[in-house]
Amino acid sequence: MASLTLTRDSFEQTVTDNPIVLVDFWAGWCGPCRSFAPVFERASEQHPDIVFGKVDTEAEQALAVAARITSIPTLMVFRDGVLVFSQPGALPAAALEQVIRGVRDLDMTEVRAALAERTAATPA
């Protein structure tokens, strides 16, 4: 499966409607983004059960601001609608595969419990 172009209009629904979503925030002028693009595309072909989305930070500036993107490329990974990984920088193929394995292996019951605990500890 090739990656999808995500926009402000499609981002939230894509993240909430799919079990695992990897999102590459990028820009055409960014050298590291251009070097990461083929790695991301190959992974999308190797994992057809995962949604791979790309956000052009130049075309989708409001979305990039909402996602608090300060450096590109930035990879965000969502599992069951929950942000479980976010890291700037171009990953090599082996590191991207390690992230994918880690996300697949997550116990989302534990993740949700930890989030609930953190939310409860945060003063209103």
From TrEMBL:
<keyword id="KW-0249">Electron transport</keyword>
<dbReference type="InterPro" id="IPR036249">
    <property type="entry name" value="Thioredoxin-like_sf"/>
</dbReference>
<dbReference type="InterPro" id="IPR005746">
    <property type="entry name" value="Thioredoxin"/>
</dbReference>
<keyword id="KW-0676">Redox-active center</keyword>
<protein>
    <recommendedName>
        <fullName>Thioredoxin</fullName>
    </recommendedName>
</protein>
<dbReference type="GO" id="GO:0015035">
    <property type="term" value="F:protein-disulfide reductase activity"/>
</dbReference>
<comment type="similarity">
    <text>Belongs to the thioredoxin family.</text>
</comment>
<feature type="domain" description="Thioredoxin">
    <location>
        <begin position="1"/>
        <end position="105"/>
    </location>
</feature>
<dbReference type="InterPro" id="IPR013766">
    <property type="entry name" value="Thioredoxin_domain"/>
</dbReference>
<dbReference type="Pfam" id="PF00085">
    <property type="entry name" value="Thioredoxin"/>
</dbReference>
<keyword id="KW-0813">Transport</keyword>
<dbReference type="InterPro" id="IPR017937">
    <property type="entry name" value="Thioredoxin_CS"/>
</dbReference>
<keyword id="KW-1015">Disulfide bond</keyword>
<dbReference type="GO" id="GO:0005829">
    <property type="term" value="C:cytosol"/>
</dbReference>
